[in-house]
Design brief:
By secondary structure, the chain is mainly alpha-helical. Helices cover 60% and strands 8% of the residues. α3 packs across α7, α4 runs antiparallel to α5 and α5 runs antiparallel to α7. The N terminus is likely disordered.
Length: 213
């Protein structure tokens, strides 16, 4: 009876075994990788290669631009494979690097970049990366969770981008007009970015299977 009264309760099982939780060193390494991917992704345009004779015949491959760069995919990928802390840290470093004057943004860099209409989308990278990593790691290596995390991250990026465009428009700092900017920076690249996150989700799922977490 005494044993029963003073028995220490068994702790509830965690969703992630200790072996599947990233160490601080792993998170730092993923943050560095995420920073490098984000910087390099801005210079790489995403395209889809389709045979010219498809679907009737196979001919030469024709590349069709998806209207976006790999940068958004890099932001979401690092969240899916590196977790929320590494993803957020990589984007904090990216924004700090760009605002300090390094030419890592699409149109350059520096403190004056806040006047660019795309700056709101860049600000959206930070919460999007954190949320993507948070949702992707709520369950150990589930493909549907990874896809959902990418979708949420993409929506957050565009939401903050649209809010920022609205603010610039209200203060008269949007020469092309609000609707033209929305078409250019959200509506045009969004379908291609949806296709891109399909690839990102698959790559992240494979990476996590290979790395056992």
């Amino acid at each position: 009876m005494a044993k029963l009264l003073f028995q220490v309760p068994t702790p509830l099982p965690s969703k992630f075994p200790k072996s599947q939780v990233l160490s601080p060193l792993d998170e730092l390494l993923w943050a560095i990788i995420g920073l490098l991917l984000t910087v390099s992704g801005v210079f790489i345009e995403v395209s889809l290669s389709i045979p010219t004779g498809w679907p009737l015949a196979w001919g030469e491959m024709q590349a069709y631009s998806l209207g976006s760069t790999l940068q958004v995919g890099a932001v979401l990928l690092i969240g899916c494979v590196g977790g929320k802390n590494a993803a957020a840290l990589s984007q904090i470093a990216y924004l700090a690097l760009g605002l300090s004057g390094a030419q890592v943004f699409a149109q350059g860099g520096g403190l004056g970049y806040w006047q660019e209409p795309t700056f709101g989308y860049l600000l959206g990278f930070l919460p999007a990366a954190w949320l993507c990593g948070y949702i992707a790691f709520r369950q150990p290596r589930r493909f549907d969770a990874i896809v959902l995390s990418c979708l949420v991250g993409l929506l957050v990026i565009h939401l903050l981008g649209l809010v920022y465009l609205t603010g610039l428009s209200l203060f008269g700092s949007l020469p092309e007009g609000w609707w033209s900017a929305v078409l250019q920076y959200s509506f045009t690249p969004f379908p291609g970015q949806l296709l891109m996150i399909c690839a990102v989700s698959l790559i992240a799922f494979i990476f996590r299977r290979l790395l056992f977490y």
